[in-house]
Every structure is written in structure tokens, then in C-alpha cells.
Amino acid sequence: MPSALPDGEPVPDDGSLPASALTGSADRPLGFYLHVPYCATRCGYCDFNTYTATELRGTGGVLASRDNYADTLIDEIRLARKVLGDDRRPVRTVFVGGGTPTLLAAGDLVRMLAAIRDEFGLAEDAEITTEANPESVDPAYLSALREGGFNRVSFGMQSARQHVLKVLDRTHTPGRPEACVAEARAAGFEHVNLDLIYGTPGESDDDWRASLEAAIGAGPDHVSAYALIVEEGTQLARRIRRGEVPMTDDDVHADRYLIADSVLAEAGFDWYEVSNWATSEAGRCLHNELYWRGADWWGAGPGAHSHVGGVRWWNVKHPGAYAAALAAGKSPGAGRELLSDEDRRVERILLELRLRDGVPLELLREEGLAASKRSLEKGLLERVPFEQGRAVLTLQGRLLADAVVRDLVD
After folding, report:
1. How is 300-369 classified by DSSP, letter by letter?
2. What distances in angstroms separate CA 366 from CA 238, 353, 371, 408, one per listed residue?
């Protein structure tokens, strides 16, 4: 089931922000994340804030229905316009995630995007993305999205092997994600991503290579590859605890990552974030870069997180409670925190070190700088960028990114 929300101070009923949050906002890009919490079935490894029809039955009534969800989310977009007041930045990125956004009608996703355009305006080169389950779209659906203003789509592929998909409880059939790439291209999408997962119990090196080759052969310009994380409370965690499938192994994850980087690089994909590769700078996911660079974004939907000018807040998780708050004219925010300068310094190191450009050494304190020199000598940081004042991970450093970060934030 979905993980718990963090603690925090109460969010005002009207959602208002401290005046300091908008200081200097003109110099920061603004994005929107729109969360669609519905799934046809729950994947065994998932602990995202998502719900099947069975899980919602009797817990939210009509308020939790996906039939009127777009209208509810549009209410929060209008609330965002009131809260941000005179802030007239056009929106640079929109990302619709979930869950399975494409369980909603294409017209609903287009209406949600139109509300952002009407309330805020979109930058001329705005990136507009939706995630999609391969089994929930067809050529007509993708064409409707493209005509409605979407210009990037991300398909959940995970694996090309049926037995791996079965362990993950994925419902799509092998080959369908690759077909979706072709359908998206035919609909006019220039930018297409495929998501992959490595380290699933029972997956072999050959299985992983086959998945990478199938993904590359489909012709996307972006591939994301994530190590499987077994979250407590998920069906997969229970199966591992019962001994039905083996626990994942960190050494296997490292081997699979090296395979991914090698195969993708050979096919013309360059890494720009530890888990993300693109064939060109234009193919990168700009929305995710907003997160990694600490920009501003408004997260609309149940359980969605937002950040504006050092203020972070998160919405109530249940779709029924979320809809009820907005119906009452109140913010659906469950809690918030005001980040200190030190919080923001640490977060910059945590996030920017994962990027190809790395992090400025000037952000490091004395102990962190000493640790960076040790990492350099161990071959975990690249020498030339270091001499130019930046900490940039080597391939070996990417394998140990979490450990390097822990040392640098001291």
C-alpha cells in the first residue's frame, strides 16, 4: 500500500504561501505535476499513492470517482492561480503521472492541460508529458493527446521478458510497449521515453540485455532504467519474505547498471542523470530536471508534493479526502515545511550530484570538500571537472552515488 506522508506544519485553509516563497521567482522556471491516482491493478512492487476500483469502493463515494476526477484536479489548478497571485511566469513543463493517467479519457487529460494554459499560460517551448500504460492507449488515443497539446509520452515497459513481467505483476504483453513507440511517432510525438526496471528476482543478464535491446530497437529518444527497490508493505516484499522469490542483490544491480550504460552508450544514448539516458539534449526530461535543480513546481492531485521558493508541501493522500477539501473551497494540503538555507544546500548536493554537470565544489563545507578529494583519488569523481570546480561522478561513482553523497554533505 502507499507509503506514509511526512510530518509537517499545517497548510492554511486557503493554501497561502509566505511572501518569501515568491521572492526572486521570475528567475526560476515553474512546472506542474498532475497526479492521477487510478490503476486497473496494483503491481506487486508498487508503493505509490495509487488505488484500484476495489480499493476505492465504499471509501470515497462519488468524490473518489475517476469519472469526475479531471474537474476536481482543475479546481486545484485554479487554487494554484489564486495562491501564486501576481506571479506571471508561464509554465515551462507539465508532467501527468500516476497511477495510470491514461485510464482517464484523453479528453480529460487535454482539459487538465487546457486549465493550466488558461490560468497560467504555457512557455512557447513548454514540455508536456504524460505517462502511459502500454495496454491503455491506442493510435486514436495518442493522436487525441498530441492534438490536445501533449508533446512527450513515457511508456512503462519495465522488461521485454514475460517471466520478469509476471514477477512484477505487470499486465502488458511483451512487444506492446515497442508498438506504442511506433504509434506515438505516427501520432506526431517527437519525444518518447521507455521506463525499464532491472534486478527483478529471476531476471538474468541475458534477460536484461534483451530488454535493453528491445527498448532501443523501438526507437525512443529517452530511456530510464531503475534498480528494483523492494518496499515494505508491497506484495513483492511479502513474496520475498515467504521465500517464494529471492531477494534482490546489490551486486547484481551494479552489474545490470554497467550493462545498461554500455548498451545504451553504444546505441547513441548519453547519460545526463544517474538513471536517465537521452539521444540528444532536446530529448532530456526537462520536468525531472526541475526537481533535480530545485526549481518550482506545483503538484496537483492526491498525495502530490509541491515546492515553491523553499516551501515544500504535500496533499492529503486519499482521492475522496482530496476531492472533499476542494469541494469545500479549501486547500487539500496535508502539511508543509519551510526549508532553511542549510536544508537547501544539502538538497542541492543530494540532487545535483546525480546530474552529468555535477555539483559546484563551493557548496561543500570543509569536511565535505576533504571527502570529495578522497572520492577523486578513489576514481569516483572525474578529475578535469574537479579541477574546474565541480564534483562530477565517474561511472564507478554512479554505482556508489548514495555513499558519495553522504560523504559530501558532511
Report:
1. ESTT-EEEETTEEEEE-SSHHHHHHHHHTT---EEEEEEPPHHHHHHHHHHHHTTBTT-EEGGG--HHHH
2. 44, 17, 9, 10
Of 353, 391, 360, give the one whose Cα is nearest residue 375: 391
* Spatial distance between the Cα atoms of 105 and 214, rounded to a whole number of angstroms: 29
**Does residue 263 carry a pLDDT above 80?**
yes
pTM of the entire predicted model: 0.94
Q: Cα(22)–Cα(12) distance, rounded to whole angstroms?
A: 17
- Residue 325 burial class via C-beta count within 10 angstroms: exposed 0-12, middle 13-18, buried 19 and up: buried
Nearest to 141 by CA among 173, 103, 112, 171: 103
Residues in the chain: 410
- 3-state class of 179 per DSSP? helix
Model pLDDT for residues 313-339, shown as the tens digit of each residue: 999 999 999 999 999 999 999 999 999
Residues 362, 380: Cα–Cα separation, whole Å = 18
Return d(Cα 117, Cα 135) in angstroms, integer.
Answer: 29
pLDDT confidence bin for 171, thresholds 50/70/90: confident
CA–CA dist 55, 41 (Å, integer): 10
Is 24 exposed, middle or buried (CB count within 10 Å of its CB: 0-12, 13-18, 19+)?
A: exposed
DSSP codes of every residue in 116-129: HHHHH-EEEEEEEE
CB atoms within 10 A of CB 83: 21
Torsion over CA: 199, 204, 209, 212 (sign)? negative
CA pair distance 16, 331, nearest whole angstrom: 9
Neighbours of 138 (CB within 10 A): 11
The separation between CA 119 and the C-alpha centre of its own chain, rounded to angstroms, equals 24
Rounded Cα distance between 237 and 376, Å, is 37
pLDDT in tens, 41-60: 766 555 567 777 656 765 55
What is the CB neighbour count within 10 angstroms for residue 307?
21
**What is the predicted pLDDT for the residue at 53?**
63
CB 313 within 8 A of CB 11: yes
**Per-residue pLDDT, 46:** 59
